[in-house]
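Structure, all four chains, one model.
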Amino acid sequence: MKKAVIIAGAGTHSGFSPALAEALLKTEREVFLLVRREETKHQLLTCFENRTKTPRCVVVDLLKERDTYQLLDSISEEFQIDVLVHNAARFKRAPFSELGLLDFEEIWRANVGTAIPASNYLAEKMAQNGGGSIIYSGATASVRGGANFSAFASAKFALRGLSQSLAREYGKRGVHVAHVLLDGIIWGDRAQNSFGIAQGRCIQPEELASAYLSLIGQPTSCWTQELDLRPAQENF
Amino acid sequence: MKKAVIIAGAGTHSGFSPALAEALLKTEREVFLLVRREETKHQLLTCFENRTKTPRCVVVDLLKERDTYQLLDSISEEFQIDVLVHNAARFKRAPFSELGLLDFEEIWRANVGTAIPASNYLAEKMAQNGGGSIIYSGATASVRGGANFSAFASAKFALRGLSQSLAREYGKRGVHVAHVLLDGIIWGDRAQNSFGIAQGRCIQPEELASAYLSLIGQPTSCWTQELDLRPAQENF
Amino acid sequence: MKKAVIIAGAGTHSGFSPALAEALLKTEREVFLLVRREETKHQLLTCFENRTKTPRCVVVDLLKERDTYQLLDSISEEFQIDVLVHNAARFKRAPFSELGLLDFEEIWRANVGTAIPASNYLAEKMAQNGGGSIIYSGATASVRGGANFSAFASAKFALRGLSQSLAREYGKRGVHVAHVLLDGIIWGDRAQNSFGIAQGRCIQPEELASAYLSLIGQPTSCWTQELDLRPAQENF
Amino acid sequence: MKKAVIIAGAGTHSGFSPALAEALLKTEREVFLLVRREETKHQLLTCFENRTKTPRCVVVDLLKERDTYQLLDSISEEFQIDVLVHNAARFKRAPFSELGLLDFEEIWRANVGTAIPASNYLAEKMAQNGGGSIIYSGATASVRGGANFSAFASAKFALRGLSQSLAREYGKRGVHVAHVLLDGIIWGDRAQNSFGIAQGRCIQPEELASAYLSLIGQPTSCWTQELDLRPAQENF
């Protein structure tokens, strides 16, 4: 059975999702990009026009357990999913006084909730298959709660706690659960337009994709649970 | 104006809430215990029968912003609330495979969501008043995601991230935000009946209350952001 | 037998040693300030002129095991030493390229080596006596290795590792080992003359002394292993 | 100029040094194994008999600055050293009561002191050459001070503090400084004979070598400062 990878929460803010998909296609896996909106799907597929290998892009609400399970069921009929990359994130920078409970819930759902159904389905599936990799994408805010980051940091801390628990729960069943601490900005549209940061000071999407690939390829005697990654020029 | 303290999420699993209330009553503050259920209110008030000083106990759903705000508004008419202790928690130990998105949300809401409305209201109020203390109660799971603790650790990590952010956001406005890492079990009904642990190996409620009081009393030149507390006999 | 406290590495850079001695004198303990130089001894004693209670000040090289042991032996004949505060420190800020192996050794010896003989003697003594407290004084550099802090951070990290090991080794024998993370500058001569920082942004010596006293006074059911302390105005 | 790598503190307790040398030889670098004793040199060279490519093995006392500098000077005449792996370590497990100041110094010198002269020489050299990698080998004891590990943990904490400082000091000058947290036992003679642990529960030397190679190969936009590595079967 051909192997497949799920990239849950693919986006176009940065060039990471297309770069990761491209890197994974080279491993002879089928690549599924799960996106929330039709528009994102079209933008992502545009990146792969005229390529020999292209990922599949599926619109699904990762917070809907039934939809997510049905999708993963149907993929599992044809493929053995051995990699899940959770990459869904919603950034939020705002004073605490401007945030209410609903904002906190929304940020939690976007950053953590989106990880639950797919992880639930795939962690067990991988354990039954004897192996697999699940990677969660963290940020500086995963380990440092800064001023004006109450909702975002709280959610990113939560995702890190989840990843640690699952690493300990599934490791001995062969599933490698890792958390990547992205301590920097990935080059792409948002870096350029919103943050106005130079490319040379950013994490390059293709190089980041290679780092994820290294994690996925780690043999069982040498697993990393938490990988920090930052540009040489980043203050930390 | 007389000062008041809010204990958000008072319970009877352990003897901590009554002990903390009693210790705070000695500081000449009015003490408000916010509880979720009528039954808990009665149990708590029973602890203070025939005492000279008694805390007030109010039933309120801390997840309801309007109710929480109205309650704090009415208390603020009479008192200057300068201390908030968030102590609401729901413990959960279960394999990830038995937990769905709804469980994660529920655990998040009980452990983190309950902190938002009251913190929102009081952090600003205290900053405007020039000072105050907000303490969140953490656990071993706040810094370590163990197997079968995915939902609980994730929520406790989130609360810790929130506390760090608020500490940095409100510290310079005079509000001391602290996080207590309780690395052990508080003596009380649950310790005795559910965990079957000896009293001598537990955190004593009265001594824990003193530790909270020390935090509240810290002068502005010597603030602790995170305080770990454990019995001498605890493995760590 | 009257109790006594040892302050190993008392100095006059800041007002902390006199303040701590004064606070401890109020606990009815005999207070011994161990200093490296005669000059420091005279400066420290000057602080206590015309006071009813004064600490004793002894010149000793804490790196000399025999001298340290003899001193502690002779004190132990009269007193039960139940508190050791290790406060010897040498600050060093320099580019790595300007530091050689000898510098690293010197900084290690001043910050860590000075803790070994006294800790060795007293940890066992306290364990045999059924209890006691040992406190090590850390800094921001104990948990963060900054540029130009290679020697200092390396030594402070080492002291933290020592304190954790001893906490786990002696805790169950009744000896409370704690590490204080001083994330800020203590008010005193050096703060004023070398760092040029305002008093209001500094840790106040008397308030810091109170925090140490709180640690020393913690009951066995509620021990803190690591206590961070910083002024409200400190960036962190 | 051909590139070269220095492995400072090569040993034969585990199979790591030969495996790392072999992996690095494939990158077309000249490989220098710096060992303390003639005997180790012969054992290491035996591993490479009848191989096409072999590392060079040099006996040097890494604590002697002059010797270390002269050696690196002479190597630098022929090669551009762009990688330093510090791997010298002395394990120590003993109750604190059995350790004196000299033991602490000795353990510090073996684990940390051995890193200073070579790092001093090469960090600057690499910065002047515009790039390079320095990797320090840590252990569980680098982040956790356990009972009976006072000397070892203290030294390993120190090495970690050094690595963090150098990472921040040299990163912007192009030198990638990383710290590897080996949370497990490397397969080899000691694992088999002293620890009696099964190969399947150990870190495999060849796979560990690959992880070091990945670190060395990281592009400047994606550097890891701290890499934890453990077998899937390890408790953590």
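The longest strand of chain C covers residues 79-86.
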